[in-house]
Write a structure and sequence with these properties.
The protein has helices at about 1-10, 15-25, 30-40, 75-80, 120-125, 145-150, 165-175, 215-230, and strands at about 50, 65-70, 85-90, 105-110, 130-140, 180-185, 205-210. By secondary structure, the protein is α/β, with parallel strands linked by helices. The protein has one domain: Vaccinia Virus protein VP39 (Rossmann fold, 3-Layer(aba) Sandwich), CATH 3.40.50.150.
Length: about 230
C-alpha cells in the first residue's frame, strides 16, 4: 500500500495538502470489499472495467489493461494523473458504453443505488464482460445494519440513494437484466472471514454473475411486451 501512496504523492494533480487528505480518507488501506474479492478472483492480474471508479481506490489495484469509468471531472482528472486508464462518461446516457471494449471482469461497486435505471446499466454491460460481472452492494436487512438502526444509526439511507436492495431483489434485478447468478459472498473484515456467515445475515455482498442466453432471450421478450403495454 505504501507504493500506491507514493505513486499518488508523485502524480496527484491536487495541492500537497489536498493530496494528503485524499490519502488519509481514500488510500489509507486497501478497501475491504476488494480484499474480500481478491480471495476469490485474480483481479490484481486481470483486466477489469471499474464502473463508477471514483478516485480509483479499487482501480489502482487491478491488473494490466484495466479501465475506469466515472462521470466526475475531478475524479477522472485525478485517476488519469496517476497513469491509469479512465473514461469520463455518464453510464445512463444512451449508447454511452458502446465501444468500451471487453474485459476479464466488470466491477460495479456501490453504484447501482445512485442510478435512475440500474437494470439498463446492467443490460448494457453485457458486451464488456469477457468473464464475469462482480457486483458489490449493500443489502437489507443485514444483521449489522439492523443492529445499527436499533441504536439510531441509518446506514444506506442517504439522500443520494434512489434504491435499496435485499439479496433477493438484487438477484431478481440481475435476472431481469439477463444474468445468471454464479455465487454470492458476504463482505466481512479479514478476521471474520474464517467463520462462515450465511448470506442472509450480511450487510454487504459481492455477486458473481454472467450473461445467460436463455435469460437474455426472456429479457428481450419482456422488453418488447412492456414497450407495447406502455405505448
Amino acid at each position: 500500500m505504501e507504493r500506491v501512496r507514493q505513486l499518488i504523492r508523485e502524480g496527484s494533480p491536487f495541492p500537497a495538502e489536498e493530496t494528503e487528505q485524499m490519502l488519509a480518507v481514500r488510500f489509507d488501506h486497501v478497501p475491504q470489499r476488494l480484499t474480500a474479492a481478491l480471495e476469490h478472483w485474480p483481479l490484481d492480474r486481470a483486466s477489469v472495467l471499474d464502473v463508477g471508479c471514483g478516485y480509483g481506490n479499487c482501480l489502482i489495484h487491478f491488473g494490466p489493461g484495466s479501465t475506469g469509468i466515472d462521470n466526475g471531472p475531478e475524479e477522472t482528472e485525478f485517476v488519469r494523473a496517476l497513469g491509469l486508464d479512465v473514461v469520463q462518461l455518464d453510464v445512463e446516457e444512451p449508447h454511452a458504453l458502446e465501444g468500451i471494449g471487453q474485459f476479464d471482469y466488470v466491477w460495479v461497486s456501490d453504484m447501482l443505488e445512485h442510478l435512475d435505471a440500474p437494470r439498463l446499466l446492467l443490460r448494457n454491460l453485457h458486451p464488456a464482460i469477457g468473464g464475469a460481472l462482480l457486483l458489490h452492494v449493500s443489502v437489507l436487512p443485514g444483521l449489522t445494519r439492523s443492529l445499527m438502526r436499533r441504536i439510531g444509526e441509518t446506514p444506506f439511507d442517504k439522500d443520494v440513494h434512489y434504491h435499496q436492495w435485499t439479496v433477493d431483489t438484487i438477484r431478481y434485478l440481475l435476472q431481469r437484466a439477463g444474468y445468471r447468478t454464479v455465487r454470492v459472498f458476504p463482505v466481512l473484515p479479514a478476521k471474520a472471514r474464517k467463520v462462515p456467515m450465511p448470506v442472509r445475515f450480511a450487510s454487504r455482498i459481492i455477486i458473481e454473475a454472467v450473461p445467460d442466453e436463455q435469460l437474455v432471450a426472456t429479457m428481450r421478450r419482456s422488453e418488447a411486451r412492456n414497450k407495447h403495454l406502455v405505448a
